[in-house]
Amino acid sequence: MSNTSTISLSDEGVSVVDEHLLDQDTKPVSIQINNVTVSFKTPKGIYTAVKEIDLTVRKGEIVALIGHSGCGKSTLMSTISGMVKPTSGEVYANGKKVTSPGPDRGIVFQNYSLLPWLTVYRNIYVAVDAALKDKTAAEKTALVETNLKMVNLWEHKDKLPGQLSGGMKQRVAIARAFSINPKILLLDEPFGALDALTKSSMHIELLKLWVMDDRQKTIIMVTHDIEEAIFLSDRVVVMNNGPAATIKEIVDIPLSRPRNKKDIVHDPAYIQIHDKLLNLLIDKFSIADL
Ligand SMILES: Nc1ncnc2c1ncn2[C@@H]1O[C@H](COP(=O)(O)OP(=O)(O)OP(=O)(O)O)[C@@H](O)[C@H]1O
């Protein structure tokens, strides 16, 4: 079976010409979440954020995680990244039990997690240097430059994070994750602070990165944006409200790729999925329903 695809870019989005259809079920498992419960000790007692979560994500899948604020999306992402230990259950990444963070799993956080005393350039270089030990200095420098230019921050490379807007900081964090280009990319509301145009171009860059990696990169992304979730993902995991949040439903997005941003919204299948996700997230639609 041919395993090639070609990318072309236009104002409307990424055009990925499929030369084969992916059969997700036959792909190796990338992330396995087995019966994971995460509880925190708080001054008021034990607080269970997520409860008995089971989820299998296959290699090359793009999965979006959506749910109301506080339902445990970030907690689940931190558990996959290895920064939070499950109270019970386990997480496996590429067959290995996750016990700590690792270079195979890159994460972009909501709060950017930049080192405030390092310039934009150094924030990325230091991370690349630590993660990609077998690359030469010239290769690392080139990576930093390419990705800073990709997020339109090359002119700001000598600024400190404190001198940047929220959206700029978010773009630095995206450039850092893209430079390291890990096998598993964990994105916690990566595009939340960006304006609509920048967000769209980041979607394109994300899909480019995925396609250039021959669609082998696994991406899990937290988002509050239903359109973004449908445009990017193969599946959308909808969480119930917490405490002790569970998975409410997993919705398949069987829309063929390439997905054109302008056209997709008129596709009856898109409209149906959009309605379904909205219904899962919002129980009441009008004041008369109250
Ligand atoms: N370290 C912690 N100690 C105590 N409680 C925590 C801790 N981390 C998260 N929580 C609680 O767990 C719940 C889930 O938080 P989490 O940040 O995972 O939610 P979220 O779905 O990502 O929210 P948002 O969409 O607002 O970012 C919240 O009630 C939060 O207060």
From TrEMBL:
Keyword 4Fe-4S (UniProt): no
Pfam families according to UniProt: ABC_tran
Superkingdom per UniProt: Bacteria
UniProt keywords, alphabetically: ATP-binding, Cell membrane, Membrane, Nucleotide-binding, Transport
Cell cycle listed as a keyword: no
GO molecular function: ATP binding
InterPro entries: AAA+_ATPase (IPR003593), ABC_transporter-like_ATP-bd (IPR003439), ABC_transporter-like_CS (IPR017871), ABC_transporter_ATP-bind (IPR050166), NO3_transporter_ATP-bd-like (IPR005890), P-loop_NTPase (IPR027417)
Membrane topology category: Peripheral membrane protein
Coiled-coil segments: none
Stored Gene3D superfamilies: P-loop containing nucleotide triphosphate hydrolases (3.40.50.300)
Main subcellular location of this protein, as a coarse class: membrane
Residue ranges of the TM segments: none
Subcellular location(s) of the protein: Cell membrane
Domain ABC transporter: 31-266
Annotated protein name in UniProt: ABC transporter ATP-binding protein
Organism: Mucilaginibacter pankratovii
